[in-house]
Specification:
alpha+beta; 3-stranded antiparallel β-sheet
Length: about 675
């Protein structure tokens, strides 16, 4: 039996036993300088040797004396269609008795590990879940754990090059990430997909941490802490986006994730981790200041931000210079900042329970939120707002150099995102914060025009709690009317990223050159913006759906069951906001459940790989077809799609994994 022996000065001696391997291959883990730079290799054997040997048959590429810093076991099989072959490996500390059989008790050990895994995942699932629901939740959690990976990228070393190798091209020193020299990545991180996207992205990471908090809250907290530590966060307050451009702008969701992880752990253990909350809060203050200074070009509380992770959702590339000049006032960027304000206000109020100093900071974010609400309705006092009274929808506003301005009438998630800027305040919290309450009521009394923009503050809702939101009752109903219309945003499997209205009525913009056209694209993108697998012009994306569901739950927390919305338009049926949130949750869960034909909708685009009716597993794709729910994009991106585990837990706890009557005719 073949085995690789390894020695490490700290870890000691190890053996990797490879049952049934044809051959062991060895080389050095060094760069092929001959291939990259035209410089002779030293040492002779380099890291791509296995490819050269296996694919090109070059025996001289591998180390003949079977030593090196990189090793592989070579297997050769012919596997008939529908069959499988098993490979057994064992990594172990080198035993004192070298004759000890490495695969003794192998089957018993595998059985034991399976039982331990079953016990771990069974303890996480609500008792009312079905076997299938438990299996989906388990696979979502397992995918998150699988996508943890050691990530090593020290930017300064990469920019300057390895002293032992030829110097990199000079252009590198002014190229990508050249202004992130401080960044020192040397930790295990949660990847979006360690097969296709083996790097972290800050806004993906924020969503990963929500389901992670259910299985390993310590890891979730450390991930959030890490990206705002001094060797990650930029000195100017910016947070690294992702590997190919750390300076790109992602939605500011880290404060939201921090608060949610804190509350999830508090609910689970009975005690919140205040040092964690306080530590990240101070770093988030720096990030908030960066947003205000860098992304509010006119100082009017209306934000730009660029593509903000939504890639090609706009008429053109929003992170590049606009055609003909000018600038774009973004509904989504401004909504994200409204949510950021409320997240920081909520964290400050929590910290103020023990330290009254934080009451003043909470007031600061409340006032800033009022400024954002005012600006969305009347930018700079010139009567221009992002809300369109005719369409009853929010749009981006394009400002041209000749002082013309007009809304970009694309009905997309950009117009629904104001719904996510919502928070409720409990009466006991207000009474426990006298300075905050006093200052808040002074503002709302002396500036009634601002109070009227955000909520009916003087009319306490259910349980005497108060509501702070960018969208009041009327505007919220207007947005929900479109969101819950099947011919617009509502799919059988969640909320589309763009209204289906644009399938028959594309939006056309003629501005300084060729016409720009935006239409509904339910599956893969037909535009070259950001690549074909980054499509926000129709498909269903989990992160935004999750935030919309959470926002509806908050609105219901204030309004209660007396506030109902007709859904769908013209059906004559009405549902509470909580019932709508439950229905949307169940539609997202339905992506992974077997339908009446025994198929899982998420597998419909993958039928060439296996029979969807036979598959007992799910793939947690990057996004999903806006009409039939088929999984699209990266196929192993458990990442933020693992949020389905949180929805299953939540719906199982509520006992609401079912269809509500108000939607029965869809």
């Amino acid at each position: 039996m073949l085995a690789v022996e390894a020695s490490h000065h700290v870890l000691g001696e190890y053996q990797l036993h490879c049952q049934g391997a044809v051959e062991l291959l060895f080389t050095e883990n060094e760069t092929n300088t001959q291939r990259l730079f035209g410089v002779p290799n030293s040492p002779r054997y380099v890291k791509d040797a296995f490819h050269e040997y296996v694919i090109n048959g070059d025996r001289s590429a591998i180390q003949p004396d079977q030593t090196g810093t990189k090793a592989a076991a070579l297997y050769q099989f012919q596997i008939p269609r529908g069959s499988a072959r098993e490979i057994r490996l064992r990594l172990r500390k080198a035993p004192t008795n070298r004759s000890a059989a490495p695969f003794d008790r192998f089957d018993e050990t595998i059985v034991l590990r399976r039982r331990e895994a079953d016990e771990f995942y069974d303890a996480l699932a609500p008792a009312c879940l079905s076997k299938e629901q438990r299996a989906i939740e388990r696979q979502a959690f397992a995918g998150l754990l699988w996508n943890k990976q050691f990530y090593y990228y020290i930017v300064e070393e990469w920019l300057d090059g390895d002293p032992a190798q030829p110097p990199p091209p000079e252009i590198r020193k002014i190229g990508r990430n050249s202004d992130w020299r401080h960044l020192y990545n040397e930790r295990v991180m949660s990847m979006p997909d360690n097969w296709e996207y083996p790097w972290y992205a800050s806004w993906d990471l924020a969503f990963h941490c929500i389901p992670f908090a259910l299985i390993d809250s310590r890891f979730a907290k450390r991930q959030l802490e890490r990206v705002v530590r001094e060797w990650y966060q930029h000195p100017n307050g910016d947070v690294p986006a992702y590997e190919w451009n750390f300076g790109d702008v992602n939605p500011p969701v880290l404060a939201w994730a921090t608060w949610r992880v804190y509350k999830i752990e508090e609910k689970s253990t009975g005690k919140g981790d205040r040092p964690f909350l306080e530590t990240i809060f101070h770093k988030l203050l720096l990030n908030f200041t960066w947003w205000v200074n860098r992304k509010d070009s006119g100082g009017r509380n209306i934000f730009q931000g660029g593509f903000l992770g939504l890639d090609n959702i706009g008429v053109f590339d929003r992170s590049a210079s606009l055609p003909g000049g000018g600038h774009l006032e973004q509904s989504d960027a401004t909504s994200w900042m409204g949510m950021f304000c409320l997240n920081l206000m909520g964290i400050a109020l929590e910290l103020a329970r023990k330290n009254p100093v934080y009451e003043n900071i909470a007031i600061k974010f409340f006032e800033h939120f009022l400024g954002i609400a005012a600006a969305m309705n009347n930018m700079g006092g010139d009567g221009i707002g992002l809300w369109d009274e005719t369409d009853e929808f929010f749009y981006d506003m394009l400002h041209l150099p000749d002082a013309r301005h007009f809304p970009l009438r694309v009905r997309s998630l950009v117009g629904l995102l104001p719904l996510i800027a919502v928070e409720t305040i409990e009466p006991e919290l207000l009474n426990a914060m006298p300075e905050f309450k006093k200052r808040l009521e002074w503002i709302l009394t002396n500036k009634p025009e601002l109070a009227g923009l955000i909520s009916r503050w003087q009319e306490p809702g259910l349980g005497e709690r108060r509501l702070i939101a960018l969208t009041r009752g009327h505007r919220m109903k207007c947005l929900l009317r479109r969101m819950l219309e099947p011919n617009e945003f509502l799919s059988d499997y969640g909320i589309r990223s763009m209204s289906k209205y644009h399938q028959e009525h594309p939006y056309v913009l003629e501005c300084h050159g060729p016409a720009y056209i935006v239409s509904y694209e339910r599956a893969e993108s037909q535009t070259g913006l950001f690549g074909g697998n980054s499509n926000w012009r129709g498909p269903i994306w989990f992160p935004i759906n999750y935030l919309l569901i959470e926002s509806l739950q908050k609105f219901h927390h204030y309004y209660g069951d007396d506030f109902k919305v007709e859904c769908p338009t013209g059906s004559g049926s009405y549902a509470t906001l909580r019932e709508i949130a439950n229905e949307l949750s169940n539609r997202l869960i339905k992506l992974f459940l077997r339908d009446e034909r025994g198929e899982r909708p998420c597998l419909r685009a993958s039928l060439g790989a296996f029979n969807a009716t036979d598959a007992d597993w799910c793939w947690f794709h990057e996004y999903f077809d806006g009409d039939n729910g088929a999984g699209l994009g990266a196929s192993h991106q458990t990442g933020w799609t693992a949020l389905v585990a949180k929805l299953i837990q939540q719906q199982g706890s509520f006992g609401t994994i079912e269809k509500h009557d108000a939607f029965s005719d869809l």
